[in-house]
Amino acid sequence: MERVTLRIPKQQIDEVEQLVETGEFPNRSEAIRSAVREMINEQAESRPERTGKRNWAKV
């Protein structure tokens, strides 16, 4: 695996920490990997209809 450093708003990190504390994910890294996988899968599903624009999540 490759290490990536990124900046995420504190509110989102707090929400990720809550998912870890409730046992939904073993740690923050796995929660973030899961979110990236989900985004990639959603993008793959919508590829036939792509208009050339990316539909990134709004923060």
Relevant terms:
53% helix; mainly alpha; 59 residues
Write a short abstract of this structure:
The protein has 59 residues and is mostly helical. The protein has helices at 10-21, 28-46. It is elongated, with a radius of gyration of 14 Å.
Element layout with pairings:
Layout: H1 10-21, H2 28-46
Q: In which range does the helix fraction lie? A: 40-55%
**Annotation field: number of helices:** 2
What is the string of helix and strand elements?
Answer: HH
- Intertermini distance: 27 Å
Write up this protein.
The radius of gyration is 14 Å and the shape is elongated. It is mostly helical and 59 residues long. The relative contact order is 0.10. The protein is built from 2 helices and no strands. It is 53% helix and 0% strand.
